[in-house]
Amino acid sequence: MNAVMISGSRNPAGQTARAAGAVVEGLAARGVQCGQVFLPTMRVERCRQCEANGWGICRGEGKCVIEDDFASLVEQIEAADLVVFANPVYFGDLSESLRALLDRLRRTTRHEAGKARLAGKRAIGVCVAGGGGGGAPECCASLQKVLAICGFDTLDMIPVRRQNLEAKLPSLKRTGQWLADALQG
Is residue 27 within 8 Å of 180, Cβ to Cβ? Predict the structure, then answer.
């Protein structure tokens, strides 16, 4: 069993990383290997809406023409038994780097070839809000919507705010353990 954690955070030691790290720690405690991807360090361009109709080969072939790190990220997602999406909440929504990845991913899953690669793939989301912390639930709703469009089997959406991060870390670790048990059972 293996998993991949995809983070939209620029800070690999910040609040989002700590929250996602607790999930990864729980997975590891049950023997699930988890790779980690920090999107801001990757080259993932935004969708170009290649053709005049706003689409491109994404709709007709289930892939993207842009030559950047997107294709390798999709391969990592395909190879994983579970995907953990970790997102720092900005303005009550997804970070720009996670949005860029997911915008292109949902376009490629409009074609059967793209959708088949991800259909039923298990995923969770962890959305961590700084500041007042009020945007985490809205961000979870946004992430859940786009994951459903892509065909993921979303097992959980976890809103976290900086004010309750310390209290939620043990719960996030238990969530990782629960996910590992579910994958192996």
Answer: yes
Whether 139 and 101 have beta carbons less than 8 Å apart is answered as no
* Both structure tokens of 133: 């912390």
C-alpha span between 164 and 41 (Å, rounded) = 28
Dihedral, CA atoms, 117, 175, 160, 74, nearest 10 degrees?
-20
Q: What is the rounded radius of gyration, in angstroms, for the C-alpha atoms of the chain?
A: 16
Q: How many independent structural domains does the chain possess?
A: 1
**pLDDT values of the chain reduced to their tens digit, one per residue, 185 residues:** 899 999 999 998 999 999 999 999 999 999 999 999 999 999 999 999 988 888 888 888 888 999 999 999 999 999 999 999 999 999 999 999 999 999 999 999 988 888 888 888 999 999 999 988 889 999 999 999 999 999 999 999 999 999 999 999 999 999 999 999 998 87
| Pairwise CA distance, residues 184 & 106, whole Å | 28
Which residues 6+ apart lie within 8 Å of 118 measured at CB? 77, 78, 105, 109, 150, 151, 152
Domain range spanning residue 22? 2-184
Distance of alpha carbon 32 from alpha carbon 8, whole angstroms: 22
Q: Which CATH number belongs to the domain containing residue 127 in this structure?
A: 3.40.50.360
